[in-house]
Design a protein that fits this description.
alpha+beta; Trna Endonuclease, Chain: A, domain 1; 4-stranded mixed sheet; two-stranded antiparallel ribbon; 6 strands; 29% helix
């Protein structure tokens, strides 16, 4: 897919870490990958459903301290972070994309689904766009 003029500029969430000056790899957090992928897929005209439920801070009624609830993010194990589709795809067809940071591990359920070909595991917005292009091409081949 060709780059749109809006994509050629810098994104507001891109930052250069101070450790990048010294030649060390800078880990990319999962929430940054999610924000970048959402931004680029939205520019490509995709409908995006997020299955991630981040818990908000709660306040203790006694001492008024804020805390996060114990436990995961509330998602079912193995369910991808994003369900993506283009408007011209057939009804009921969604692309499952699991977005991971550079150092984030893939769970056994996600690994099994990825090996089955049910979801894509992407570590950058470019990989998510490549997965979208691959799925679009596969749908185009099926129509012939």
């Amino acid at each position: 897919m060709p780059q749109s003029p809006a994509r050629q500029g810098t994104l507001p969430f891109k930052r250069r870490a101070s450790s990048a000056r010294y030649g060390r790899a800078v880990p990319i957090r999962e929430n940054v990958v999610e924000a970048q992928a959402d931004y680029h897929l939205h520019l490509d005209g995709c409908e995006i459903l997020s299955t991630v439920h981040r818990y908000k801070l709660q306040t203790c009624p006694c001492c008024h301290n804020q805390f996060r609830p114990v436990g995961g993010y509330g998602a079912t194990p193995g369910v991808p972070d994003r369900l993506v589709r283009l408007p011209d795809w057939p009804r009921g067809v969604w692309l499952g994309i699991e977005l991971k940071g550079s150092d984030t591990a893939v769970s056994p359920a996600q690994r099994r689904l990825h090996e089955m070909g049910a979801i894509y595991v992407c570590r950058s917005a470019d990989e998510a766009r490549d997965a979208l292009a691959e799925c679009t091409e596969a749908l185009r081949q099926m129509k012939r």
